[in-house]
Amino acid sequence: MAVSEKSFNSVRIAVAAAYRLKATNIQAFDVSNMLRKDIMLVIIVPNEDQVSAVSDEIEKYLYIKENKRKPIPEETSKLSQWFSLDYGDFVVYVVCEDAIPVYRLDNLWNGLPCIDLRLPRHA
Prior knowledge:
Layout: H1 5-20, E1 25-30, E2 39-45, H2 48-65, E3 77-78, E4 82-86, E5 90-96, H3 99-103
Parallel strand pairs: 2-5
Antiparallel strand pairs: 1-2, 3-4, 4-5
Pfam families: RsfS
Organism: Gardnerella vaginalis
InterPro entries: NT_sf
């Protein structure tokens, strides 16, 4: 399978929201051959406050810019150290860097093929 253009464009909107709040460690992975999703977006932030703020900003941006698009409520997990937002065709993980070794969250994305989101260098 291949990543759909719709998923790709939606993920770029999510990334723009994260950049707006100064998130810088952002990676997108192609999971289309493994899951019923196209993309896993991982955003690593330095503290728990930013986890919540970035997640809220992503939800707001996608709601406004993607015709009131919302995550699937029962598939959304909101913890203080990480959030997951499931939009059906892609999932977003916003993770506090301190939580990665504790929960071994890097096992979620290690070895997955990266997606070039074709973002400007200064974005």
